[in-house]
From TrEMBL:
GO molecular function, one term: RNA polymerase binding
GO biological process: DNA-templated transcription elongation; regulation of DNA-templated transcription elongation
Name this polypeptide is given: Transcription elongation factor GreB
Superkingdom as given in the UniProt entry: Bacteria
Signal sequence interval, chain numbering: none
Gene3D superfamilies (UniProt xref): Transcription elongation factor, GreA/GreB, C-terminal domain (3.10.50.30), Transcription elongation factor, GreA/GreB, N-terminal domain (1.10.287.180)
Residues covered by the Transcription elongation factor GreA/GreB N-terminal domain: 6-75
InterPro entries for the chain: GreA/GreB_C_sf, TF_GreA/GreB_CS, Tscrpt_elong_fac_GreA/B, Tscrpt_elong_fac_GreA/B_C, Tscrpt_elong_fac_GreA/B_fam, Tscrpt_elong_fac_GreA/B_N, Tscrpt_elong_fac_GreA/B_N_sf, Tscrpt_elong_fac_GreB
PANTHER family, per the entry: TRANSCRIPTION ELONGATION FACTOR GREA, TRANSCRIPTION ELONGATION FACTOR GREB
Organism: Haemophilus pittmaniae
Every Transcription elongation factor GreA/GreB C-terminal domain range: 82-156
Taxonomic lineage from the root: Bacteria, Pseudomonadati, Pseudomonadota, Gammaproteobacteria, Pasteurellales
Length: 158
């Protein structure tokens, strides 16, 4: 399944900030450290040089990824038309069959974070939620079996 290209404005800003930090701050510092380490002579056993070159490759790889990804991402801002239904960016409170409550926010695949209860718009739960309203039931197939949840509440950060 292809990744969606949706992202919240805050998510896009975070990726853009990371890109600028890597390119304008960290990379020049690491480049200087590598240059200084190279001036010390034998590079084959110079840990600072070896680590610095490795870190430069990591930075360059991440910069390339972020540059390409930011070009294709589409920022989805809140719209009053979304109220009452689950769409991208929504917070949703679900109640399972045992009465346990869980809250999730539907975000782009570049910003999902289980610690914050942010789930990817591409996840099975999010796909089952899209377009639903309060008091509707969703069914999601999981590796441990089918789960049924009820939507108690939907809200958006404005």
């Amino acid at each position: 399944m292809a990744k969606s290209h949706y992202i919240t404005r805050a998510g896009w800003n975070a990726l853009d900030k990371e890109l600028k930090f890597l390119w304008k701050e960290e990379r020049p510092q690491v480049t200087q450290a590598v240059s200084d380490a190279a001036a010390l002579g034998d590079r084959s056993e110079n840990a600072e040089y070896i680590y610095g070159k490795r870190r430069l490759r990591e930075i360059d790889r991440r910069v390339r990824f972020l540059t390409k990804r930011l070009e294709v991402l589409q920022i989805v801002d809140y719209s009053p038309k979304q109220e009452g239904k689950v769409f991208f960016g929504a917070w949703v409170e679900l109640e399972d069959e045992q009465g346990q409550l869980k809250q999730y926010r539907l975000v782009g695949c570049d910003e999902f974070d289980p610690a914050k209860n942010w789930i990817s718009i591409d996840s099975p739960v999010a796909r089952a939620l899209i377009g639903k309203t309060v008091d509707e039931e969703i069914a999601v197939e999981t590796p441990s079996g089918r789960i049924i949840c009820y939507i108690n509440r939907i809200w958006y950060e404005k």
